[in-house]
Amino acid sequence: MIGQRKILLSERDLPKKWYNIMHDLPKPVAPPLHPGTKQPAGPDDLKPIFPMGLIEQEVTTSEYIDIPEEVLDAYSLWRPTPLHRAYGLEKALGTPAKIYYKNESVSPAGSHKPNTAVAQAYYNRREGVKRLATETGAGQWGSALAFASSLFGIEVQVYMVRVSYDQKPYRKFLMQSWGADCVASPSNLTNTGRAALQANPDNPGSLGLAISEAVEDAAGRADTNYALGSVLNHVVIHQSIIGMESKQQLASINEYPDVVIGCAGGGSNFGGIAAPFVRDKISGKNVDVIAVEPSSCPTLTRGKFAYDFGDVAMMTPLLKMHTLGHGFMPPSIHAGGLRYHGMAPIVSAMMDQNLIRALAYHQNATFEAGILFAKTEGILPAPESTHAIKAAIDEALKAKQEGKSKVILFNLSGHGMFDLASYDKYLQKQLVDHEMPDSEIQKAIKELPVI
Amino acid sequence: MIGQRKILLSERDLPKKWYNIMHDLPKPVAPPLHPGTKQPAGPDDLKPIFPMGLIEQEVTTSEYIDIPEEVLDAYSLWRPTPLHRAYGLEKALGTPAKIYYKNESVSPAGSHKPNTAVAQAYYNRREGVKRLATETGAGQWGSALAFASSLFGIEVQVYMVRVSYDQKPYRKFLMQSWGADCVASPSNLTNTGRAALQANPDNPGSLGLAISEAVEDAAGRADTNYALGSVLNHVVIHQSIIGMESKQQLASINEYPDVVIGCAGGGSNFGGIAAPFVRDKISGKNVDVIAVEPSSCPTLTRGKFAYDFGDVAMMTPLLKMHTLGHGFMPPSIHAGGLRYHGMAPIVSAMMDQNLIRALAYHQNATFEAGILFAKTEGILPAPESTHAIKAAIDEALKAKQEGKSKVILFNLSGHGMFDLASYDKYLQKQLVDHEMPDSEIQKAIKELPVI
């Protein structure tokens, strides 16, 4: 046989604590600001929509946070996830580099999102919350929360962007199978939704509008909280389990990565795999940590590090982050996910402090990488994850050119079983690459709130 | 934590041999007959469409067959698969029974089918075959063969039943992503297809017709062979790895099952999990082995054990099997898979020799079991697999009633990520249960070929 393909951990080896990089960053992460007063937002500002357990994690600089038994128990349904050695991909590239990937696609929802969804469901239930409201675009986050909430006996109301609700019904059916209630946004359930429908009954919806509906729903009902699948500090902390397991798995075969790669949309899977390695870098270790984003939504590579709203409606707290402006929308031709206008404050701080670097790729190149991966490693990757694959391939080819051995680690954040229409478009050569013109970026940045 | 949920094996523990129950069955499996002469079919009859490596396996009574290195290597992409203890399901049922399930859904194609697909691709390539032709209904087998062939550098031509090709494009896109060529059947590529289209340009296709096209394609080209995803002896032998791993995993925690359950369509996943336990039963061990099928396609529970054709067009060899007649079609309302009119000769022989028993369930009951499983264990099961889940639940409830502890093992043959439209129909209460009238069965059996 070619060699050991999968490095496994037993459930006994599941990390018992999440790691919080805010403890180790040389400069602290800037606090969120109240959208009205623009003063630092305190727990009281967040209490109407988040449980105290998560609010505490949002602000703590403790190095570690104990993972509750119930969360570990839910994790053990699919964690620890396997770390794979990509022998097939290496052979196809003819590279001397060793490529490893962490396989987060094995979760019931098919991505890394359940790592935070089960934690959020747990803390909400612990504080007596009976119902969660959230938004979802294509449905990856909504289905993760539906899965997690079914384990903890919590109701879920998902506001799904109407155009996805109509055109991509399968994740909706998946959420419903786990017992969640999923409505098209704009909906008749909220003032925001009703106003939008009155203005235009055919409103196709947007993620910003869906966020506004979910927040209004949660703020207006005592039994209901809001849940967010990326960006926030507590989400990135929960995702640290990805990097912690990976490090443990590599250590078990006496490896340490020269390069660590993750794709970055809101920043949670990247922050999750990166955090334990960035910590080593802060301590002087030589490790190259790369966030990969789409050229059509180049938050880290071309956005500004500034305070901005998390949503179009300017209802959320202001976060200090790399942003293209809260009004930014990637062109509709973009099929590769990672569409968020901002980047998690923790990841943005890593970038600002030169602890990571960022790359942007066009979508045709990333789908090409995804197809090569599927043919050599078997798994059809999520379009988001193909960004990390493309960067790993380029690093491996550079190693080949330089005749250097090198250890590359990337995160396979999810599988592409719900993204086959996008693969079909790629194979039919219908995908167009799009580069944001400088003028557009300058215009968006000029409209950022003045703090 | 609740306890260890997953029993893992390392790649070192991958079984190195397939087990062949034909060595141990008290009465031999009847040989296939030539469709024209009705005399036992020899290697020469099969050589135009199968490689010798597989033809030998079709007839051998050797106890074990070495798994080639290259196949082990491909298996190691996802095997050994985890064995799960279903704590969540047990708790929901309040049963004293211990429920274990073998998780075959973790393969790249999402089911057990790649266990035989990689073996078939390997033996064909070893004998210089450059291209494989096959048929597929909803696409589970076609995508498994596309995946396997991409690893071994073989071209694949899939004939996909037109109605599925048009209504369920996602598995088609998946096959194409792995590089397979997928056409709607009837197609213009074969005489059979052209004749069918000439008679009716809107012909919706059928599995029988697609088989005929694939066999014609393979028989007519020197570089091309045919591949079948179930029923045949070599397929059931390849699937024995499911049962062998399961037995090893249970032994590692000092367990042995009282009950072993698998769903049965063509019989390959059932035969795979059952074989090593049926062998123990032949040696006197007390183990209850149950095949579960849909009431609307009750091959084992109500079919006749007789020689029949494998396809509608009566082109395949005659196989001795439990059959509803080669003209049988389950009603179109049936959403739960497992639609084949016959049953693998090996599984049929087990049934005939009283080594297993069979149950039939209506589809609404199986989807209900699938939803309970998704809410308690996370994974949304394939509709096929929900038949095994339903039987496991009933066994666990019986144990509860009797106040008995009991160890139940079932095979989770695949996930349901491509079957969400069927789950939606179930949730919308649009699925109708259908029981085959006795008169229909009697009529079908009367039309069986006279041997």
Describe the structure.
2 copies of one chain form a homodimer. Chain A contains 18 helices and 15 strands. The first copy, chain A, is of the alpha/beta class and 451 residues long. Chain A has a domain at 6-13 and 69-110 and 233-445: Rossmann fold (3-Layer(aba) Sandwich). In chain A, the strands form 4 sheets. The first copy, chain A, has a 7-stranded mixed beta sheet, with helices on both faces. Chain A has a 4-stranded parallel beta sheet with strand order 8-7-6-9, sandwiched between helices. In chain A, strand 6, helix 6 and strand 7 form a beta-alpha-beta unit. Chain A is globular and about 60 Å long. Chain A starts with 5 loop residues before the first strand and ends in a 5-residue tail after the last helix. The mean pLDDT of chain A is 95. At the A-B interface, helix 3, helix 6, helix 8, helix 15 and helix 17 of A face helix 3, helix 6, helix 8, helix 15 and helix 17 of B.
- Please tell me the CATH architecture of the domain at 6-13 and 69-110 and 233-445 in chain A by its name: 3-Layer(aba) Sandwich
Q: How far apart, in Å, are the first and last alpha carbons of chain A?
A: 60 Å
**Quaternary:** homodimer
> How much strand of chain A?
15-25%
Largest sheet of chain A: 7 strands, mixed
Low-confidence stretches of chain A: none
Q: Could you tell me the CATH topology label of the domain at 6-13 and 69-110 and 233-445 in chain A.
A: Rossmann fold
CA-based gyration radius of chain A: 21 Å
> How many β-strand runs of chain A?
15
The interface involving the most residues is between: A-B, 46 and 46 residues
Main-sheet strand order of chain A equals 1-4-5-15-10-11-14
